[in-house]
Amino acid sequence: ALPILLKLGLHPNIAGLLDAWSEDEFYIVVDATPARTMKSLDLPLGAKDAAIVALHVARGLAHCHARRVTVWDVRPNTITIDMEGTADCFFDLFCEAEATVQAVKLVEFGFATVRGSSFRGCTRSYASPETRKLIADIGDLAIAETSQDQYAWGLVVAELFQGHGKRHFVDSKGELADLCRALSRECVGDNPKRRPPMAWVANRLERFVDVHRAASRDLDVRDAARLHDTLGAACHHVGAVHLAEQHLSAAARLRANKILADEPHDWVASTTEPEEPEEEEDLASTDEPDERSEEH
């Protein structure tokens, strides 16, 4: 996954690569991630918390897609979430107390590929119909690789609102839940070419989620530089001079680049919104669950 991490760079919703060096052995420094996965949380979440998680996952996927990377394996075990009251002490330095959801990151890119590369695999229970054909060696890679992540996102969002293993909305209350249900159903639609881009999905959600009050406590590049400074000073204190120099050098490079982790949102402004579905109002109603999105 190292080439994929290098290609993805830094983003607040991805466990990205901060530094790498060789010193007898090969070392890498990756972004700090919350300790708990979505799989380990008690679901469903409240509507606002679920929508915030859905937004951050959509942002992370949009960032991957903007760099022509398909994740393939989006599922509760590969989504880490830091909730207020469950953070470890280091994250407490960077939290905002108003928000319940403090950080959301995608992890584990073992199946991720650059578009046009060979298919490497996907967890079957979150695979789209097109990807299941690929698993059986009869599918179309070009169709599956541009729609699989959307399909998995739709299933994950349903679970955030309904509970583990529940792949369709049977009830929802409030504007946020209705919007997320509509977007989820669009993403698990029968026609893969009609599944909306994740950048468009994130843009829709941003209109309704108060992201300023629910700011993430993700480490941005400045926080990562301070972490390297701290580690460098600690290494120097115990006599590990060379390792200290590595950390201090990494901190200097991060500051020199002046790349803030919350900047990559150009895709939102440049994305052309697809046509609205003719029956979008029906999607947001409390009709019967869509059987095609349920896993048997």
Explain what this protein looks like in three dimensions:
With 296 residues, this protein is mostly helical. It is 40% helix and 9% strand. The protein is built from eleven helices and six strands. It has helices at residues 2-8, 47-66, 129-135, 141-144, 148-162, 175-187, 198-206, 221-237, 241-257, 266-270, 280-283, and strands spanning 17-23, 25-30, 69-70, 79-83, 101-106, 113-114. The strands form three sheets. The protein has a two-stranded antiparallel ribbon with strand order 1-2. Strands 3-6 form a two-stranded antiparallel ribbon. A hairpin with a 1-residue loop joins strand 1 (17-23) and strand 2. The longest helix has 20 residues, at 47-66. The chain is globular. The relative contact order is 0.15.
Share of residues in strands: 5-15%
Main beta sheet strand tally, sense and closure: 2 strands, antiparallel
Instruction: Give the count of helical stretches.
Output: 11
Q: Averaged pLDDT, please? A: 77
- List the uncertain runs: 85-99, 211-219, 258-277, 279-296
**Oligomeric state of the chains?**
single chain
CA radius of gyration is: 20 Å
User: What is the tally of beta strands?
Assistant: 6
